[in-house]
């Protein structure tokens, strides 16, 4: 049934590529650094690891950075499933992170966090979520893919207990 514990835990386990930047750390505003990240939502934690593609260098050398990003995204899609795992109970954290080659770059504690659609003044990008942790760290999370960002929004709202808004 939809309310069974298994259904809930599947809903709240999710992984794939998102664009992420911190904007505030421990209450202090920091410079944006949009990074294509491999994100894993597991229990009440969001684990984020850069895929090696950073949009922050685009202003200097847009073509090489763009090619590198596409290559990186392609490699990730080949090596790692880019969709939510409906059977996530059987997938270990190690395989979600693509073997033992890499460790999570940072973990966001979602307990007491708030999630909402970011206001226009936070970013010029579309589909931007604002995640604020209880420790005063603020992250922007973005994807150009409308369906994909909505899935993440729903999953993050379910995890944090925030209301789902249009
Ligand atoms: O909110 P901001 O500061 O206008 O964000 C933009 C800048 O961080 C910019 O970097 P530089 O100021 O280092 O050139 C980024 O390249 C942009 O992506 C940031 O804005 P968006 O609207 O994309 O979040």
Automatic annotation (TrEMBL):
The PH domain covers: 22-161
TM ranges:
none
Q: Which domain of life is it from?
A: Eukaryota
- What's the protein here called? Rho GTPase-activating 12 isoform X1
């Amino acid at each position: 049934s939809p309310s069974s514990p298994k259904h809930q835990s599947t809903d709240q386990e999710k992984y794939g590529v998102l664009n992420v930047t911190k904007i505030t750390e421990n209450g202090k505003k920091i410079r944006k650094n949009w990074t294509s990240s491999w994100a894993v939502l597991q229990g009440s934690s969001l684990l984020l690891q850069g895929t090696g593609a950073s949009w922050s260098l685009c202003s200097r050398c847009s073509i090489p950075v763009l090619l590198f990003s596409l290559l990186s995204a392609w490699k990730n899609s080949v090596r790692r499933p880019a969709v939510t795992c409906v059977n996530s109970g059987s997938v270990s954290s190690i395989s979600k992170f693509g073997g033992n080659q890499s460790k999570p770059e940072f973990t966001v504690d979602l307990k007491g966090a708030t999630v909402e659609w970011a206001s226009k003044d936070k970013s010029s990008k579309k589909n931007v979520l604002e995640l604020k942790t209880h420790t005063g760290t603020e992250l922007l999370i973005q994807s150009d893919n409308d369906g994909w960002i909505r899935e993440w929004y729903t999953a993050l709202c379910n995890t944090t207990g925030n209301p789902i808004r249009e």
